[in-house]
Amino acid sequence: MTRSQALALLSKYVKNEKMIAHCLASEAVMRAMADRLGEDIEKWGLAGLLHDLDVEFTAHDMSIHSMETARLLREHGIDEEIVEAVMLHNEDAAHGRQRTEKFHHALAAGETITGLITATALVYPDKNVQSVKTKSILKRMKEKAFAASVKRENIMECELAGIPLAEFADLALNAMQKMESNK
After folding, report:
1. Residues of the domain holding 111
2. Cα angle at 85 between 16 and 59, to 5 degrees?
3. Helical (H) or strand (E) element with 46
4. Where are the alpha helices (DSSP H) in 56-101?
5. Helices 17-37 and 165-181, interaxial angle, to 10°?
6. Which of 29, 54, 78, 119 is the most exposed place for a label (fewest CB within 10 A)?
7. Pair 62, 92: CB distance under 8 Å
C-alpha cells in the first residue's frame, strides 16, 4: 500500500482532526525510529499512520480497539507484521498476547510519546510543538499527574526497541517538529 492509499484509508475511517494529527505524528516518529534502528522506514511509517483506524467506530472502547483495524488492514492486504504490531499496540485488546518484537515495542512507544509531546506543547504559551524542548518532555515523563492518561510504561518500551529514553524523546520531538514545519 502506498502512502497516498494509506492516507485515503485513514481519511475514510478517521474524521477527528486531532486523531488524524496523532496518526501523522505517530507515522513521523515511527519513520524516525526505523531510520535510527536500520529498519524498514516505509513499513514502520505505515504502522504508525494506520494504527488507530478503528478508534472512532469502536467508540474508543479499549477492549476492542485495534481488532477492527487489524481486520481492515488484512482486507487491504497489509503485511501481517504490521497487522500484528497494530493489534498489540493496544494491550487491552491483545487478549493476553504480549509485545515481543522490536517493531511491537516501537509502535507502542512511538504512538504513545506523541501524546506526551502534544500535551507538553499545550502548556507552552504559544502551544506549539516547535517550542518544546527535550528536557521538558523528560521532566513531564516523571510527573505522573501530567497527561495522566499517557502510559509512561509504553513510552519506556523505546528501550526494548533499542533506543534509550533521552535519545528517544529527542528523536520523537525532532520528528514531530519536522512534520509540523513541513505542513
Report:
1. 3-181
2. 30
3. helix 41-50
4. 67-75, 80-89
5. 120
6. 119
7. yes
Give the dihedral sign, CA 106/17/71/64: positive
CATH number of the domain encompassing residue 166: 1.10.3210
Structure letter (DSSP) for residue 112 = H
**How many CB atoms are closer than 10 A to CB 38?**
8
8: pLDDT strictly greater than 80: yes
The predicted model scores a pTM of 0.95
Place of cell 533499542: 162
For the chain, what is the domain count? 1
The rounded radius of gyration (Å) of the Cα atoms in the chain is 15
Polymer length of the chain? 183
By CB neighbour count within 10 A (0-12 exposed, 13-18 middle, 19+ buried), where does 75 fall?
exposed
**Residues in CB range of 157: below 8 A, 6 or more apart:** 99, 105, 106, 108, 109
